Amino acid sequence: MRLPPYIVRRLLVGPLVLVLVLLAFGTLPLWLIAAAFVSRFVPGRWRILRVAWFLFVYMALEAIGLIGLFTLWVVSGFGWKIRSPRFTDIHYRFMAWWLRRVMGTARRTFRITIDADHPAERASSDQPLIVFSRHAGPGDSLVLIDALINGPTARRPRIVLKDTLQFDPCIDVLLNRLPNRFVSSRHKNGQSAVDAIGELTASMAAGDAFVIFPEGGNFTEKRRVRAIEKLDEIGRPGLADRARDMENLLPPKPAGALAALEAAPTADVVFVGHVGLEELSTIADIWRGIPMDAAVIATSWVCSVDSVPPAEEREAWLYDQWQQIDEWIEDARQAEPI
């Protein structure tokens, strides 16, 4: 779907969300009763009602977010100082609050438990951070960003995202005011993902954290087989053999990961693995799983900047870390079925 122009998103999509929230508030008793009634005839425990309630709260948070962001724009001199250090800090604090509310609502509504250490807790607070994470399901990016920004050693996250996420007006406004990049999957008319990664990581300072998912997409067996075939096709049989040994992950795509490491030579590196979200990769999976009763278990480890190998050894090193995540996933599944 083609993304509407900037002016349309600001003058039409955002106000439309506010109108929908007002309508939802005005008809709250009616649609709650209707959702509860329909839920009786749909498999699952109050599935329709849970989804309706989460969407209502999410839209309410969208409205609060848009009003708050508009207020900040006015207070900053109608955008004059919106990217100053002071207002950047305010936006990060607002982002942390907004994510706490969204994630708290999701955990309670869909009965999700998260057992995870904080990925930045053992890293040096004097160094920027690059976070390499497994990608499985649409929710893992939110879980990871929430852990970074709301953890005991709060970090200011940066990320490269698909431009279609700007259909969400609050995400559109908030993340475009912070050091993030939205890139088109077509690349011909915009900045490539690798270029955006290099730009974002090169300007990091202490307290910043760049988040990247080297697999480039959610794991499926079909994608895994195709990725291994592609490695064979481009003449990388050694990497293809290593990828065959990993049964739970796609082989990492090195271009973006290596660009991040090259552009941020003073950054510590964190690797993150998790289980519990891979069965919720599509909208259909999420719908069938509600209430999810999902237990998300995550692990992470820090590689200090001194332990990052020289450029010519980094691709093999990345595969070593990915193999470690794959083995941890296998052990976690055997210990406690997810």
Describe the structure.
It is built from twelve helices and seven strands. The model has no long low-confidence stretch (mean pLDDT 88). Helices cover 52% and strands 12% of the residues. The protein has 338 residues and is of the alpha/beta class. It is globular and about 60 Å long. The chain has a seven-stranded mixed β-sheet, sandwiched between helices. It has a single domain, classed as Glycerol-3-phosphate (1)-acyltransferase. Helix 4 crosses helix 5 and helix 8 runs antiparallel to helix 9. Helix 6 links the parallel strand 3 and strand 4.
Chain-wise SSE layout:
Elements: H1 6-26, H2 28-39, H3 47-75, H4 85-110, E1 113-116, E2 129-133, H5 140-149, E3 156-162, H6 169-177, E4 181-183, H7 193-202, E5 208-212, H8 221-233, H9 237-244, H10 254-263, E6 268-275, H11 283-289, E7 295-303, H12 314-335
